[in-house]
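User: My instructor asked us to take a sequence, write out its structure as tokens, and then describe one feature of it. I'm not sure where to start. Here is the sequence I was given:
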Amino acid sequence: MSLDEWRADERIPATGPRAEADMNAAAVLPDLPPGAPRRLLELVAEPLFVADAGGRVVWRNTAADELERWLRQNNPTRELATELAPALARAAQAPTSAEAGVVALTQLSGAARAYRVCAGALGDGLFALALHAVTDARNGDADTRAHVEIEKQHVEDVQRQLLQADRMASIGQLAAGVAHEINNPIGYIQSNLDTLKDYVAGLFRLIEAQEQVLRSLRASRPELLAPVDAVRGEIDFDFLASDLPTLLAESLEGIARVRKIILDLRDFSRAGHTEEWTLADIHAGIDSTINIVWNELKYKVELIKQYGELPLVECLPSQLNQVFLNILVNAGHAIEERGQIVIHTYAKGDRVYIAISDTGRGIPEEHVGRIFEPFFTTKPIGKGTGLGLSISYGIIQKHGGDIDVRSEVGVGTTFLISLPVRQPRPQPGAAA
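Assistant: Let's start with the prediction itself. The structure tokens for your sequence are:
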């Protein structure tokens, strides 16, 4: 078999040690037609890889491509090579051939596959990696390890859900407590301001009536009005009369904003309790979430809303608000000095779309495929748990939707969420 025939596969380097290894492989099967070894490897049902000493995959067969497509069903940004990085590192250190351990691959939807990883050196810094699917986790030590890996993945998923529930409950309790403690004093302040507004209006009516009487005396008995005019000038009555209504209006507006925050906190507190599916206004949910986080964003963010026409969406509103909160907070953290956050919504067919973009520092390419993984974070220690986006992903999946991310370092990041307008209904007669 000739080297040029191996080069026909564009995924294989055309020069270097890999080419010589390919010719050595071809020499093992001298009677096969040209190109047959590569075609045979493509027909193998198990995923096969060729990697260099640095763990970089330089070739893989069709089965490996199919495995990556399976892995990326729920998250198009995931990379099989990233998931296999520990096994690739162990294989690179194997002198000839060895088992490089067991790997469990789990979709974010929860589906799992386990493989025994076998590696063999090809020479000149190249090695082959084969994944043998585990079909029975009860037979053999390696299969038992695979079973343990799968169970570990399931335990981590349950832990993530418990942490989500605990976190949401804590937020709910905090928000409910704050809303309750603030609501009562704010209530009587607003009531008193409304009453004061009426009182002031009555006093100005009285003053205006008195002014009419005083004007009739000004011509005949001006000396009687001298003390009144002195006090009037001292307190700058004309300015006071024009400014007082404005002060009252601004105070009432401020109290209304505080009450709006309390209502948003109360809505947010429902996240800690059992919630039923309901038809909700996505824009109202986004706006209430913005109101919650605005104090953290307003000093460095220009917020641009590009709202389209959206139908009411069947959802768990407070859970979606948690998703919006996580993305907006991350966007604010990504903007170091000044920047923009753009929220664009639109409807297409039976789905609605929410795109949240920022002009922050962006996410490195090697991290994009992992941002929805539980406990993965690029923030400094103590600044993040690595659960926010993982929780968000689970919420969107629960709604039958999708969430995707596009990012470029130095340019910014966009999260695109799609949600069905209505949740699917069980078919009559379907098995329970």
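For the description part of your assignment, you could build on this observation: The two ends are 58 Å apart (CA to CA). Try explaining in your own words what that tells you about the chain.
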